[in-house]
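job 3f2a | input accepted
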Amino acid sequence: MKERILDYTNHIQSLLQEDGEDTNWQEVEEDLLIQIGFFQHERLIHLIVTVLFAIMAFLTVIFIYISENPMTYALFLGIMVLLIPYIGHYYLLENKTQLLYSYYDKVHEKNLLHKGV
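job 3f2a | predicted structure (117 res):
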């Protein structure tokens, strides 16, 4: 997903920079709305997973203080190994989706100008 959102944002950015007269801005706008929907869904799923892993990490810390079982340290380490990359991936999805919102505004404006509205 990381590669897909990076490629797509670069594609839209290059379309906006080229400002080609032969670009069908109506199609670009429709496709952009569809892709934003996909990325929003992916962002929501990763938010849920990230929050669940954070809750598990918190509960594991509490369990470490209660039980003092050495295996809970391994469990905590395993959760953190997964949580940290999830936070990074969610950060990327959030920022790139926000960027696509601004690109949508620009594409919509170009579409209106192209139509002569």
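job 3f2a | The chain has one domain: 26-115.
job 3f2a | closed
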